[in-house]
Amino acid sequence: MLKNNLLLAFLLTFILCISSSARGDSTNDNNAQTNSSGSNTQITGGYTSTTTNSYSGGQTNTTTSTTSSTTNGSDVPVNSANAPSFSAMSQDVCSTGISGSVSTLGLGISAGKHVRDLNCERIKLSKVLFDYGMKVAAVSILCQDERVFEAMQMAGTPCPFEGKIGKEALEQWDKYDVERPDYNSYVSKLENRSRIDEELAEIARQEEAEKIRLEQEALAKKIAEEKAKLETLKQQEEVDNIIIETDTETKEQRIINVHG
Q: Which of 38, 111, 161, 234 could form a Cys-Cys staple with 172, CB 3.0–4.6 A?
């Protein structure tokens, strides 16, 4: 029994000598680490360790420590999506390259395509036709652009119409106006002009009515003045007649008195 007790005491002493208490940071501690080339890491208490020794005497040794850690500033890199490059190196190609890309956390998409430049094609075709001596055809292909068509109309040199030029072409365009490349703007322009013409006609009608009213008022005023003059003359004649009659009666009375 003594031998066993000495052995247990030796073992307990040996364990106590080689073991040390692990104590973590308290919850009120604030430990911080700063790293200019990486993320910041903060470590606080939260580590737990337990050691239990038992022997026949019922002795128990328990050690507890808690250590926890928190990491801030860590970013997950996003995959990159590079848009493809498109170029049109030839001078005889009228196209424009368009490309784009979208990148998210788990997916990256890129796409691109060529878009035809119809205005560039029209100009190149017109130059080629002109170089071949086809001047009317060169002008005709440019006239497919509504801006050129309207400019030609404004300049008094209408675009060709099935081999007709000048006044004959203009008559055909007026007859088959739905074939004009600027038909929508042409109709809108006609509607605006019709509205303006109606407004101007209404203004002219009102001005003419006002002119007639003023003339009638002036005529009525003149007639009234003439009537007033006639009345004045008539009254004057009546007065003159009365005076003449009075003078005549006076003269006759004088003659009677003289001969009586």
A: 161
